Amino acid sequence: xxxxxxxxxxxxxxxxxxxxxxxxxxxxxxxxxxxxxxxxxxxxxxxxxxxxxxxxxxxxxxxxxxxxxxxxxxxxxxxxxxxxxxxxxxxxxxxxxxxxxxxxxxxxxxxxxx
Amino acid sequence: xxxxxxxxxxxxxxxxxxxxxxxxxxxxxxxxxxxxxxxxxxxxxxxxxxxxxxxxxxxxxxxxxxxxxxxxxxxxxxxxxxxxxxxxxxxxxxxxxxxxxxxxxxxxxxxx
Lengths: 114, 112
Hints:
Strand content of chain B: over 45%
Number of helices of chain A: 0
Number of strands of chain A: 11
Oligomer: heterodimer
Structural class of chain B: mainly beta
């Protein structure tokens, strides 16, 4: 089983649409959770951290369900500039506490069209 | 905004040659990482580095790979004898605390 699983998409949506991405992780000891955005051939960039209580940043809402080991990202009022690959990322504390490597999902491709 | 700088942006090398990928992390960061991304695949952890030593490495990071922080500012990844399958984007990252990773813009390594 993959450590972090995502629907690869692509999700093709019109401008203004609401789109939701899901992610599951296999390691129940996972400590921290993030959504990153990656544009073609660029570095991953942090979109938002994900907290157990759920959190919102403008048009973006992230949810975490630890019991189900499930993370979601909702994008409202999609813009053309939202077109990218969205990466679900968890940290699993390594043997050395400060290792804290990131474990990436393969990403979900979003294409927003006018 | 502080950034992680990687050079070169693109490196082409012949199979069997040694390559050194360079990174300048953010100056007050303490934890350093290398990740790689083969075209069309996910970002994969290679190695983490703290207090001048490797703190964790993945199965990918075999004897062909090494890391160094030679002068307190640069952080390098060396591949001793490159293989075709080493072709990938290599991302350096650094962080200060529990989160807050900053990634460099990457080096695209092409092995021919």
